[in-house]
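Repro:
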Amino acid sequence: MHAGYYEFTFLRHGESHANLAGYFQGQSNTSLTERGKAQVESLIKRWIAEQVNFDLIISSPLSRALQTAEMISQALNTPLEINDIWLERDTGELTGVDRNEATKLDYFKDFYTPFDLMGKTGEGDWALFLRAGKGIADLLKRPPGKYLVVSHGGIMNQALRAISGVTPQPNSMGVQYGFVNTSFAKVHYYPDTYRWHILTINDHTHITQ
């Protein structure tokens, strides 16, 4: 364990079948494609070459994240814990809907606030932001160390917003953080001085195609 500070690596899962098909997957269980598995293998090779290690891997229970986490856990011989707080956003009735078809739905809004529910029954931006903030708070209840969080683009974007002190805006305006498949952000936190250092965002140099 680190003496006195935390190192968090927030990793998005590999490409899933829903990513490939182009629909809202939300909290549905879609598995990795062969390309997604290859992305994870490329990341593992990179981290082994760079002698990267973690004290603990924490994963969303959804298949696409858990498959990613299990591959890394086995390769790096690192314990794995599953935690529901890192589930992807609940996209409500948009779950399973083609992204190109979403604007044709009768409940689609041209303007929405952070408090509006996604897909009529899902999580709005503010609800997701609050859950992500709780996820960060729960991480800080653990001892200082090196933690890998394997999760999803939506909630990890809000986690970085919570760390940065950037609240959700209407129509997803303002600051957004990129997370392509198997990209990661690395963050250090110094609890004695309440200092956050965001070292990398959307790092995916291991992906060649």
